[in-house]
Write a structure and sequence with these properties.
Strand content: under 5%
Structural class: mainly alpha
Order of helices and strands: HHHHHHHH
Helix content: over 70%
Number of strands: 0
Number of helices: 8
């Protein structure tokens, strides 16, 4: 029972993480999609770090403190969540402030169009960084169905908005 909901959440997670490129592939030229892919890889470094840290630190913490005193649990989780978020913000902020310069440093002039996209994508992911550590709570308490339904709802909303954004505004609409 637990596993079937994890399967559904895996599909929803895939749509949330990769749906943008599939949608953009329909609405923009291939060279613009290549610039977007470069920008996406650079701008999501902080999110990838956050995801790894949540899985390796925060999720086990949620599982281990289920049997401890509620006030101690809340304080410990809040402190770790704050440190993870602050640390990954520290990775994201340079991409927001200096995304163009980072692209210009790493790539030749043919790829400079990815610079503004780095800024936009990194900024958009800030909101995901803030909330990223809360979903594992549902898994830690055995509520895989609620976890899957939350991810599925988020994926459907995100994909619908990205289709509308891509159709109307191209890459900026998806970001």
């Amino acid at each position: 029972h637990f596993g079937k909901w994890l399967f559904l959440s895996t599909i929803a997670g895939f749509l949330m993480k990769h749906g943008d490129r599939a949608i953009l592939g329909r609405y923009i030229e291939l060279d613009a999609l290549a610039f977007y892919q470069i920008a996406f890889l650079l701008a999501t470094l902080s999110l990838a770090l956050n995801t790894a840290l949540v899985q390796k630190i925060l999720y086990p913490l949620y599982c281990s403190v289920l049997t401890t005193d509620a006030s101690a649990k809340d304080f410990k989780i809040a402190r770790v969540k704050f440190l993870l978020t602050a640390g990954t913000f520290g990775v994201a902020i340079p991409f927001i402030l200096f995304g163009r310069e980072i692209v210009e440093l790493l790539y030749d002039p043919r790829y400079y169009a990815a610079g503004p996209m780095v800024v936009g994508i990194a900024f958009a992911w800030l909101f995901q960084l803030i909330t990223a550590g809360y979903n594992p709570v549902l898994l830690a308490v055995g509520r895989s169905k609620a976890f899957a339904l939350l991810l599925l709802f988020s994926a459907v909303v995100r994909v619908v908005l990205m289709v509308i954004g891509a159709r109307e505004f191209g890459i900026p609409g998806v970001i």
